[in-house]
Amino acid sequence: MHEVVLGDVSITRIEEMHGPILPPKVFFPTIPESAWDEHRDMLVPDHLDADGEMVQVAMQTWLLRSGGATILVDTGVGNDKARPAVEVWDHLHLDFLGALAAAGVRPEGVDLVVNTHLHVDHVGWNTVLRDGEWVPTFPNATYLMPRADFEFWNPANNANIVGGVNENVFEDSVAPVHAAGQVQLWEGSHVIDAALRLEAAPGHTPGSSVLKLVSGSEHALFAGDLMHTPLQIIEVDHESCFCEDPAGARATRRALLGWASDTTALVLPAHFSGAGALEVEHRGDGFGIRRWAGFDRL
């Protein structure tokens, strides 16, 4: 199953790719090795390889149909992009648009694109290369981008981008959409419709955000990069090496996992492989996994 319906909103999982990304100690420098060993049965093979040497992740988009609108949450790495800092993402040629088509969506039919933040692996399919120019992939869509990230990742404001994972990203995946007049910047919170609301969730990046779904008695949290491995639900006070504000990331993760636990919300992170989504619960001073969702495993 690739689709879940919560209240009046349908959720479809669109995979770009999945596989190994980084060694655990590099990706999560402060998580003790003993924690990976203790929770090995939960993590292998979907979130950690059998040798315990590489974290496994997915690049995926959540396709929502809500209030008659077709909405994409995050857009992966993208094709043809120069990514010198991440060799496996450099100049890709993947059939992401084919996967969207298989779900019944053509680029022209997308109404709204939500970039939870503006990291390289969340904005790639914002644009495609056409006749040597980067153009919006979804010509009729409004792209919702957090203002704080739009300003932070603009190379004109940040000299540290060169040589990092976000090198070239603003120029090829953000600026062309803005130049086309399709970007709506927001801050604080933003109501999409009666069921969907964006909320600032800073820490991972200054403009990181989450999308909350409340429809009838159903709740969901599209968590972006609130966490990259299920182990962060248990080891909640440990962040990835890519977090700009580690203390802020920890506080945000605790607050939002608390909300998800209190409301029995389905949590849909951007990068969980396997079943992709789950419910969490309070356990002592932290959290645990209540159950995994019914999506087909990647």
Structure notes:
By secondary structure, the protein is of the alpha+beta class. It has helices at about 25, 35-40, 40-45, 95-100, 145-150, 170-180, 230-235, 245-265, and strands spanning about 5, 10-20, 55-65, 70-75, 110-115, 125-130, 135, 140-145, 185, 190, 195-200, 210-215, 220-225, 265-270, 280-285, 285-290. A seven-stranded mixed beta sheet has the order 1-2-3-4-5-8-9. Strands 10-11-12-13-14-15-16 form a seven-stranded mixed beta sheet. Helix 4 (about 95-100) links the parallel strand 4 and strand 5. The mean pLDDT is about 95.
Query: In sequence order, what are the helices and strands, one letter per element?
Result: EEHHHEEHEEEEHHEEEEEHHEEE
Largest sheet: 7 strands, mixed
Q: Tell me what portion of residues adopts beta-strand conformation.
A: 25-35%
Instruction: Count up the helices.
Output: 8
> What's the count of strands?
16
Report, as a whole number of angstroms, the end-to-end distance: 11 Å
Rg result: 18 Å
Structural classification: alpha+beta
Q: Runs with pLDDT <50, length 5+?
A: none
Shape: globular
Q: Order of strands across the widest beta sheet? A: 1-2-3-4-5-8-9
Share of residues in helices: 10-25%
Mean pLDDT equals 97
Query: What quaternary form is this?
Result: single chain
